[in-house]
Hints:
30% of the residues lie in helices and 17% in strands.
Amino acid sequence: MTNTIGDIEQADLILIVGSNTTENHPVLSAFVKRAVTFRGAKLIVLDPRRIKITDFAHRHIRPNLGTDVAWINGMMHVIIKEGLYDKSFVENRTEGFEELKLIVEKYTPEFVEGITGIPSHQLEEAARMYADANAASILYCMGITQHTTGTDNVKSLANLSMLCGNLGIPGGGVNPLRGQNNVQGACDMGGLPNVVTGYQPVADLAVAKKMEKAWGVTGLPTMPGLQVTQMIPKALDGELKALYIVGENPLVSDPDLNHAEKAFQNLDFMVVQDIFMTETTRQADVVLPASCFAEKQGTFTNTERRVQRVRKAIDAPGDAREDWRIICDLSSRMGYEMSYENAGEIMAEIAEVTPSYGGIDYDRIENEGIHWPCPAAEHPGTPILHTEQFTRGRGLFHAIEWIPPAETPDKEYPLYLTTGRLLYHYHTGTMTRKSDGLNNRAPESFVEISLPDAKKHDLQDGAMVNIKSRRGSIDVRVKISDRAVDGTVFIPFHFAERAANRLTHAALDPVSGIPEFKVCAVKLERVGG
């Protein structure tokens, strides 16, 4: 996030897109509700489904799936045409405006309506509301990123925010809501194939030399590694022979699951390190039992870039150990000695080699976390990014054309499918589906469908239906709901026995490598006639 969670309450307007905020981020959603209820902030929600947060929205706009670039360009068209943009910010802090202006010129409200299904007057009204706000915060999640154009979607939201001068100010910003508790920290620590800690490029020779000196080695690779979505096809082809998986359950969460299963079966060797047995650990050659967050010391970095202490509350069961101890022991046995007394020593090394964490140590975050970048011990941290300038100096507008999703409905597969989470379960259900109370509230998978679509397919609420895509099929129970929009069905992806990802498309964003989980084409058939 460019801003903090608490800062949401300072916004005059909040734009939520691609985020079922109340179910996926229920604590953070309380800040949105308070801003609207007690401070009078305006709320615009763009989502095909009538999700719960729309109960608080001043405008709920329902775009067709996979059309985000088009409606964002449309909003910018209106804002530029009517002279509502922040001319001073654009002139003094950005570049590429003329190219952006040229691209969005054709995205008139009427043109955008033909792509997105958004009535032109709704688009115009939303554009004016956003532009008129003194401080407008954009919140987005995986409904924006999990597309073949996910990178374009994020850049377009940044365009919109810069256009109206909403970056670097309290109550503004472009704020991604992270999907898991330390996913921000994992990325910060180099859990990506093209960077080491702090997003320092592996291809930068100066970075390589610095890390070689810190670690006492030579010849660190300077070529980026593989993205996870590149690994699976290479496993199927036999080029990739082994996988070491930590804290992930890809045999439920990967797209086009039938294809992914074949790839995993073709591996020579697979190690899985996790806190519970999962669908993936059951296929592993070796399972390494790890301790959970409450059983270890360390830090998490949350969605607002706040580095926080994690403290051991209970002992881990059986042979489970901290992830870092397991990794250090493996490294030592493979020839590179990794020896630390405790997690604090690792944190000290992180500060030494990571510029954005340079001023963070356990003493400073004993009682309260610090937002990176925090480059030195005397630095207070950075709650709001880009207050004076962007990392590259001037912010760059990206002129982006809308591209359709990789797969759209046709006569054979006439419906859109989108997937997501429920309030009562988390990701692949590794933890939450072990809770009787949560299972009672959400016991099984279902397909959410609108009443007109249910009538069209002669389906009754509670009946079983077969859902089929070009990649696979599952049987699930029908849930007729006013949340659904005509032409689109929704399935939660938590349930391994009826895995939604047997249906989803494995087409990837060419930049990020993220699959298009949020859009594919399906057809429905009643089970038993």
